[in-house]
Amino acid sequence: MDVEAKRIMALSISKLYSLRTQRGGLRLHRSLLLSMTVRAARDIYHTAQLLRDAEEEQVVPCAPEAAPEEPMEISKDTPKEVAVKPKETLQEDKENRCASEQHSRKRRGKTALEADFLPLKKAKMETDEEKQHFQGEVLRTNNGNSCRQTETLTSFPSNRAVVAC
Amino acid sequence: MAGAGGGGNDVQWCFSQVKGAIDDDVAEADIISTVEFNHSGELLATGDKGGRVVIFQQETENKSQPQCRSEYNVYSTFQSHEPEFDYLKSLEIEEKINKIRWLPQKNAAQFLLSTNDKTIKLWKISERDKRPEGYNLKEEDGRYRDATTITTLRVPVFRPMDLMVEASPRRVFANAHTYHINSISVNSDNETYLSADDLRINLWHLEITDRSFNIVDIKPANMEELTEVITAAEFHPHQCNTFVYSSSKGTIRLCDMRASALCDKHSKLFEEPEDPSNRSFFSEIISSISDVKFSHNGRYMMTRDYLSVKIWDINMENRPVETYQVHEYLRSKLCSLYENDCIFDKFECCWNGNDSVVMTGSYNNFFRMLDRTQRRDVTLEASRESCKPRQLLKPRRVCAGGKRKKDEISVDSLDFNKKILHTAWHPQENIIAVATTNNLYIFQEKVN
């Protein structure tokens, strides 16, 4: 389930990214729906992570390569079905896990990940709480909510929409 | 049942006409983006991605003979919107026509509103079949005559000429929307209209272009707290103070402009509790309402979300009175539809003249007719293969799984590039206009 969640997250982020280059400007509705999907997928992934980490505490840590494999297989329903388009993400993830079992934010390999997914402008950062839980993958999105491109107050000097009060 | 505007499954539909290029190579500019009959049904307007409006007119000859089908022929074509560039924000503004709405006819000329993402225009379409001839100072071709050669005086007279249909922009309503306009709706008072974008709804007077009133604003103070956007809005057909707007969360709000100037607080909120068994990653997306339409009698409104059509009684807020599944077999395919972006398709819906049947589009060039009175539904197809004059449309069936029967098509064989997003029903007769990607199909009730 979390593999599916991660795949959907990756897919959504790439869609969000491609929205920026679309003709006609940023589509607020679509960005919102995509970011909601990212959040839903991230919540599932995060929950699955927590469950897995709880299980890992009971498992005796083996060689670094083996350790991540085991818990993943337990929680995965279909271990073969890893249809992740951007293959680096999974590898990055394993790399990050192998390095340490701690809940620390991983920086290694983040740059490779960034190049693929992240929009050129980095908007909102994850909050500190979320950072602690979010091991392995750093996702920087603007949640689709930030219409910073369109949000300049001076954008309509001749805006004559009158707010009736 | 000719002329009744009703008809459920006892109505047989047959092919009448198809408009547009035949070849499969579709130019993006030719993609139809909106279809709308005028109030009498005599005129049918389409807008496309290239910013053009094409108006078809129903031929009035042979109407007395029921065997003859009245045909729609091109009446006027004009470029409504051009691509623009917002230099301040470095954004291109698409010329695609999002919506066309006709004004009720008041005199010989016809008026319609057309809108793209940012600008609404009022167009006057008028006929000219006479022209003045016999000017004193000008030649017939317009060149001025040498004043010294004029020795007589005459009164110019009107002489008949070949019919010319002229479209001229009478008003341009610009610079009032930060976000993308998704709806326009003419008020029953025939003086005002509303325009809605993702976060705001503005009220305009048809005569005044330099000012509009903002009547709904759902923009949060902090954009990162945004949870829903406006997806469609419409005025009540008879009550000039009432309008509704739908949201991406699947809710509809009815507002009364008499209650306050700013209608952020709704008078009624229509929302159906979510079925927890249907929860998935994509629940949010498929519950987003893509279209809302009042019934002609004003008692009901219809909403279209990705998988269903719902009919609401405006006096009952907690659940719809009727729900119809458009293509339930897609529920298990949502992930693939998310991957190919089809899950974001915005289908429209429409009522027939007497509110007994509703219609909406689907994939594979299928469209659905949902009969409310007989509680029956049928799936039909707009295809080049059924294009012989008066050819009867055969009901189509989709096989969701298991053994596929003869004449059924399996879900995996559906062509998701062939989608019918825009449909329109003649206000009085059983004539429907169905837009595939770049073709407009006109179907009529089969009359024996």
Note the overall shape of chain A.
elongated
Which architecture of the domain at 13-41 and 177-445 in chain B would the CATH scheme give at its second level? Answer: 7 Propeller
Q: Low-confidence segments of chain A, ≥5 residues, pLDDT <50?
A: 64-120, 122-165
Shape annotation of chain B: globular
- On the 0 to 100 scale, the average pLDDT of chain B is 92
Radius of gyration of chain A: 19 Å
- Write down the overall mean pLDDT of chain A: 58
Please state the structural category of chain B. Answer: mainly beta
User: Which percent band covers the strand fraction of chain A?
Assistant: under 5%
Distance between the termini of chain B: 11 Å
Number of helices of chain A: 6
How many strands, which pairing sense, and closed or not: the largest β-sheet of chain B? 4 strands, antiparallel
The separation of the N and C termini of chain A measures: 50 Å
Radius of gyration of chain B, CA atoms, in whole angstroms: 24 Å
CATH class of the domain at 13-41 and 177-445 in chain B: Mainly Beta
**Main sheet: strands, sense, barrel of chain A:** none
- Oligomer class: heterodimer
Biased composition (Basic and acidic residues) (chain A): 73-103
Region (Disordered) (chain A): 64-112
InterPro entries (chain A): IER
Organism (chain A): Carassius auratus
